[in-house]
Write a structure and sequence with these properties.
- Helix content is 36%, strand content 16%.
- It is α/β, with parallel strands linked by helices.
- Strands 1-2-4-3-5-6-7 form a seven-stranded mixed beta sheet, with helices on both faces.
Length: 233
């Protein structure tokens, strides 16, 4: 079931609901597509399992998926605004919040501002600071290199960009998974919007909020994560 809501700055967002049970809201990640996710060899098994125990709510954030693609504000604050808009549509007084990758920072910001609504916080593969905020020139260079590659080979399965990109995000990916990843890029966002979203993620910094988290929180992180370092988790 997909419905739509609108943010305070006029961006239309789709919200999908599947399953029954306590509400589990997944924050938007860098790239999402509510329909295409169900053919993903990466995400579909996870979402199906979660939906077997919860009423799983997901949404496409601004700029990608079924949400408005052409938007003026692409920033960490805008990501939080998207989450607040979606959360306001949930009639239940409290719900569990799941953040993946940069969605963790969005979830943290929401949980600090609205602790009365969050029963549990689950953070997987996240980071408190984006590459531009870590004070490491090497991280800044990596961020710029990533943006340059994205603008050149976005969604092209056989491109050098795609080979480099998949080696980072899917280091042991099967051909099926890598093909899905390329398809996902074409379907979810334009290369330019993906770069804008990625740049906003690189500017994330929620370190000042971490001591203010009061809700029960589970942090999960892969030790050899190529995207978000274990130390950031």
């Amino acid at each position: 079931d997909i419905r739509f809501c609108r943010t305070s700055d006029g961006v239309t967002l789709p919200v999908a609901s599947v399953g029954f049970g306590p509400v589990l809201l997944k924050t938007s990640s860098w790239l999402n597509h509510l329909e295409h996710d169900w053919v993903s060899p990466v995400f579909a098994p996870l979402f199906a399992r979660l939906a077997s125990r919860f009423r799983l709510l997901r949404y496409d954030g601004r700029g990608n998926g079924l949400a408005d693609r052409e938007v003026a504000d692409v920033s960490a604050d805008a990501f939080v605004r998207d989450l607040e808009t979606v959360a306001a549509t949930i009639p239940e007084p409290r719900f569990a919040l799941l953040g993946l990758s940069q969605g963790c920072a969005t979830a943290i910001a929401y949980a600090v501002s609205h602790p009365e609504r969050v029963s549990h916080l689950v953070l997987y593969g996240g980071y408190a600071q984006g590459r531009n905020r870590r004070g490491d020139p090497g991280d800044r260079e990596k961020a710029q290199a990533m943006l340059a590659m994205m603008r050149q080979g976005w969604g092209e399965e056989g491109s050098a960009f795609m080979r480099a990109f998949s080696s980072i995000y899917l280091p042991n990916g099967s051909p099926e998974q890598i093909k899905w990843f390329a398809d996902m890029q074409r379907i979810a966002a334009t290369g330019e919007m993906a770069a804008r979203l990625r740049n906003a993620c690189d500017d994330i910094d929620v370190t000042h909020l971490l001591p203010q988290v009061t809700v029960p929180t589970l942090v999960i992180h892969a030790r050899h994560d190529n995207v978000a370092s274990f130390e950031q988790g």
